[in-house]
């Protein structure tokens, strides 16, 4: 089942007009959130931050804002069956909400880490990278290429080869006694979980450093991970590229500073 335009629909078919810009051009914005304790008001769900990000993109694009009360009503109905919601907004304000389960192997990934592929080719660069739009084709292609090679994630890079983010989340790296992440102006998505982690580090540990991740800088990283609102934080123990393979410690003590945010 899913929610669309104020109605809970049983089934898996969404009908769109053939000239719908969301269908033709990926003209939508979306956010994906994990619902904790079946509550949109849980601190960990961070409902308002997800709505604020949608609102900001919609305002930036000059689109129509959705009926926020109706949108929340749809989300409230779906969280009874799903721990993960994907909320999509069309240019005319239509809302579309789908639900899904958490990845079956999430705990294993969090405990043991994953292998990531360095997607160092121009076709994998995301368009409008600071917004989460329906045109997610480059990231989707990179992730699928990684899976074809037996890996679980892809790391996207810019034209100079600097590491930006993964196909589904933000990057974190530990070196010089602190956590680092690429800056927003490098061309990455300002993830909701990224903001939570930065705030957590500021309050309880030390400020997160923001720096360009060039080819030389990443060589000195002791541990790396990626984050998003669904998987929280997942370590990356190996990064495979055309030229070399880099290994990192998926059990590094510093990773506790990232995962403790959900305690």
Order of helices and strands: EEHEHHEEHEHEEEEHEEEEH
* End-to-end Cα distance: 31 Å
CATH level-4 homologous superfamily of the largest domain? D-amino Acid Aminotransferase, subunit A, domain 2
Using the CA coordinates, give the radius of gyration: 18 Å
CATH topology of the largest domain: D-amino Acid Aminotransferase, Chain A, domain 2
The overall pLDDT, averaged over residues, is: 95
CATH architectural type of the largest domain: Alpha-Beta Barrel
Helix content: 25-40%
Main structural class: alpha+beta
The CATH C-level class name of the largest domain: Alpha Beta
Outline the biggest β-sheet: 9 strands, mixed
Per the principal axes of the C-alpha atoms, what is the gross shape? Answer: globular
What count of helical segments does DSSP give? 7
What does the model show?
With 263 residues, the protein is an alpha+beta fold. It has two domains: 2-100, Aminotransferase class 4, branched-chain amino acid transferase, N-terminal domain (D-amino Acid Aminotransferase, Chain A, domain 1), CATH 3.30.470; 106-262, D-amino Acid Aminotransferase, subunit A, domain 2 (D-amino Acid Aminotransferase, Chain A, domain 2, Alpha-Beta Barrel). Helix content is 25%, strand content 26%. The chain has helices spanning 21-25, 47-61, 68-78, 106-112, 137-148, 192-204, 256-259; strands at residues 2-4, 7-9, 29-34, 84-89, 95-100, 114-119, 153-157, 163-166, 170-175, 178-181, 209-210, 223-228, 232-240, 245-247. The longest helix has 15 residues, at 47-61.
């Amino acid at each position: 089942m899913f929610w669309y335009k104020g109605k809970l629909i049983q089934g898996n078919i969404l009908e769109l007009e053939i000239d719908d810009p969301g269908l033709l051009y990926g003209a939508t914005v979306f956010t994906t959130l994990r619902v904790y304790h079946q509550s949109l008001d849980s601190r960990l769900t961070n409902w308002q931050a997800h709505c604020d990000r949608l609102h900001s993109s919609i305002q930036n694009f000059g689109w129509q804002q959705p009926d926020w009360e109706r949108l929340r009503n749809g989300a409230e109905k779906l969280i009874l069956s799903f721990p993960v919601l994907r909320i999509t907004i069309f240019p005319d304000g239509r809302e579309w909400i789908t639900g899904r389960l958490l990845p079956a192997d999430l705990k294993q990934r969090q405990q043991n880490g994953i292998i990531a592929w360095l997607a160092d080719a121009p076709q994998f660069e995301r368009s409008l990278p600071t917004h989460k739009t329906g045109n997610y084709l480059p990231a989707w292609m990179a992730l699928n290429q990684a899976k074809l090679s037996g890996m679980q994630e892809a790391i996207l890079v810019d034209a100079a080869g600097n590491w930006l983010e993964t196909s589904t989340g933000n990057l974190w790296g530990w070196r010089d006694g602190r956590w680092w992440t690429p800056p927003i102006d490098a061309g990455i998505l300002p993830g909701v979980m990224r903001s939570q982690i930065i705030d957590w580090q500021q309050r309880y540990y030390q400020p997160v450093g923001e720096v360009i991740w060039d080819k030389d800088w990443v060589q000195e990283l002791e541990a790396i991970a990626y984050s998003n609102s669904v998987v929280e934080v997942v370590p990356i123990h190996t990064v495979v590229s055309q030229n070399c393979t880099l290994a990192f410690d998926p059990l590094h003590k510093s990773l506790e500073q990232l995962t403790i945010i959900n305690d």
